[in-house]
Amino acid sequence: MKFEVGLCLRSVDLTPFEVVNVARRAEEIGFQSLWMTEEMSRASPPLLALAASATSRIKVGTAILNIFARTPMNTAMTSATLQEISGNRFLLGLGVGGPDITRKGHGVDFSNPTSKMEEYVEIVRKFLTGERVVFHGRFYNVDNVRLWLKTAFHTQIYLGSLNPKMLTLAGKIADGIILNMFDPAAASYVDKFVEEGLKKSSDPAKSFTKYSFVLTAASRSSDSVAAMKKAAGFYMSSPPYRKLLIQAGHGAAVQTFLKTMETHGRDKAAQTIEEGLLEKVGLFCDEDLNMQLNRFTRAGIEPLIYPQPRPGKEKEDIDSILTAFAKYLP
């Protein structure tokens, strides 16, 4: 069986020129899209520019750009540039990031993230028309400014969404969502809030894509499983991810994790995560991927394969993961 699948790389794992090589191979194998995280490592737009210039078909996307780190005008300029470089293959993934990084790293107030996102998306879209923008909102103001674009750029926008308010907003204003640490058992929970948003949309019948990062290990080896657990623990330390897992029926695992984290820290807590939970939110590439991928596609999710390589073996594991998917892609 063939699957529509994207690939998401962590910007910390590969050098810029290694990203180019992976992008070329991902396109050859048949991945539909290539996304880059940003985290606290390399900036994703330059990496995507390199990837886009080295390919001709695969879509390229940000996963995600933190709206607190850039003004709407800056994001619109970045989007227009990446559309030019890619030949209109660019997808804009936006999110609000974590409160700690936003406050401690960017030094920005994290309050009212959903309301700020709604204004932000509206302004970005207005700028990309190439027309003058006048916007006076609660959080952002643009006073009769336009970008010096020679053409308008229609750019699909996807919101990193986990909580009800952002899921509903995505349905209302975006072209789709990007989930993470997602068990398809929580699909009805996600769909409920997306549908509420779609009812409020100016185009309720619009095409709406549900992506999800899917943690992926090259194998079931003990060190690969350990890398998966560490990644899962990173996300489980954040309340929105825990809530989504609880909705999927993993409340007991969440409580065990929290109790251990309170007394022994996150790394020790990550060791309490059982492989059964990893199987619900992730993939192991040394096993048949048909059933693993089917869990997501049956829930209406387009998986974004999210490699979690072993430390020091990033190139090796990502290459192995790409090889494993070759026979499952169109």
Topology summary:
Elements: E1 6-9, H1 16-29, E2 33-36, H2 44-53, E3 59-62, E4 65-66, H3 72-86, E5 90-95, H4 99-105, H5 113-128, E6 133-136, E7 141-145, E8 157-160, H6 164-173, E9 176-179, H7 187-200, E10 209-217, H8 222-236, H9 239-247, H10 251-264, H11 266-270, H12 275-281, E11 282-284, H13 289-297, E12 302-307, H14 314-325
Parallel strand pairs: 1-2, 1-12, 2-3, 3-5, 4-5, 5-8, 8-9, 9-10, 10-11, 10-12
Antiparallel strand pairs: 6-7
How does this model look, in words?
The chain has about 325 residues and is an alpha/beta fold. The chain has a domain at about 5-65 and about 155-220 and about 280-330: Luciferase-like domain (TIM Barrel). Helix content is about 50%, strand content about 15%. An eight-stranded parallel β-barrel has the order 1-2-3-5-8-9-10-12, surrounded by seven helices. A two-stranded antiparallel ribbon has the order 6-7. Helix 1 (about 15-30) links the parallel strand 1 and strand 2 (about 35). The longest helix is centred in the middle third of the chain and has 16 residues, at about 115-130. It is globular. About 45% of the residues are buried. The mean pLDDT is about 95.
Which percent range fits the helix content?
A: 40-55%
Question: What is the straight-line distance between the termini?
Answer: 9 Å
Kindly report the average pLDDT value.
97
The number of helices is 14
What sort of overall outline do the alpha carbons produce when their principal axes are compared? globular
Across the major sheet, the strand order is: 1-2-3-5-8-9-10-12
Task: Output the structural class.
Answer: alpha/beta
Task: State the oligomer.
Answer: single chain
Architecture of the domain at 6-63 and 156-222 and 281-328 in CATH?
A: Alpha-Beta Barrel
What's the CATH class label of the domain at 6-63 and 156-222 and 281-328? Alpha Beta
Rg of Cα set: 19 Å
CATH superfamily of the domain at 6-63 and 156-222 and 281-328: Luciferase-like domain
Largest sheet: 8 strands, parallel, barrel
Low-confidence stretches: none
CATH topology of the domain at 6-63 and 156-222 and 281-328: TIM Barrel
Strand content: 15-25%
Order of helices and strands: EHEHEEHEHHEEEHEHEHHHHHEHEH
